[in-house]
Design goal:
With 195 residues, this protein is α+β, with helices and mostly antiparallel strands. The chain has two domains: 2-74, Glutaredoxin, CATH 3.40.30.10; 81-186, Up-down Bundle (Glutathione S-transferase Yfyf (Class Pi), Chain A, domain 2), CATH 1.20.1050. It is 55% helix and 8% strand. The protein has helices at 12-21, 36-39, 60-71, 81-110, 120-138, 152-166, 174-184, 187-193; strands spanning 2-5, 26-29, 49-52, 55-58. Strand 3 (49-52) and strand 4 (55-58) form a beta hairpin. It is globular and about 40 Å long. Bound molecules: glutathione. Residues 10-11, 33-34, 45-48, 59-61 line the site of glutathione.
């Protein structure tokens, strides 16, 4: 049995979305970061956490990869060239998309007010725009990052694009705009968002 800890406004959305895609049942504890429920399973107080048979798994990407491997879906098999390309896209998205949005969030509402440097957001937006162009250059044909097969980095990218829209980070590439609309129209995304 799976238990997901973390609300849908956090990166826990990636895990909930994936479980909906895989049609797995799960319990959902929408606990906020640093709350007692979270610290009990993750001393860093961060979400998401996936609890599997009383064992907590930390970090959304580790969780997505575990679920994809376990259920044999949303991933190429470990040890294949396709898996290397898939993982390399995942790392690119974490470095260039997730990191920029997270840094902007820290300087908007997470760090103590006196430590926030709001000017950093201009350079993050500039880098985010450049990263979108780089990503487009790495995408082949097809609806997904890996072509016609949906994989773990698609969940991360689509989640980051939704995050970018709410953080007012401009989406400068029309292909990424279309991609986001298409991904957010998936029934599993809609079911996850409705939680
Ligand atoms: N790399 C981690 C990042 C986890 C993370 O920073 N989560 C945020 C919410 S989306 C959080 O719990 N922040 C609370 C804090 O940093 O104090 C992941 O992907 O799960």
């Amino acid at each position: 049995m799976y238990t997901v800890i973390g609300g849908t406004k956090s990166r826990a959305m990636r895990v909930i979305w994936m479980l909906e895609e895989l049609e797995q049942s799960f319990e959902h504890v929408a606990a906020p970061p640093r709350s007692d429920d979270v610290v009990a399973v993750n001393p860093a107080g961060k979400v998401p956490v996936l609890v599997v048979d009383q064992t907590p798994i930390l970090d959304s990407t580790a969780i997505l990869t575990y679920l994809a491997d376990k259920h044999g879906s949303f991933t190429y098999p470990a040890g294949t060239i396709e898996r290397a390309r898939q993982d390399s896209l995942t790392q690119f998205l974490l470095d260039e998309f997730d990191a920029a949005l997270w840094m902007a969030a820290r300087h908007s509402f997470i760090l103590p007010e006196e430590l926030r440097q709001s000017a950093v957001k201009d350079s993050l937006k500039w880098e985010f725009e450049r990263s979108q162009r780089t990503l487009i250059g790495r995408m082949g044909d097809g609806d997904y990052l890996m072509g016609d097969t949906i994989t773990v980095p698609d969940i991360i990218l689509a989640h980051c694009m939704g995050w970018a829209i709410s953080a007012r980070f401009p989406i400068s590439q029309s292909r990424l705009e279309d991609y986001t609309i298409r991904m957010q129209a998936r029934p599993a995304f809609e079911r996850a968002s409705a939680r």
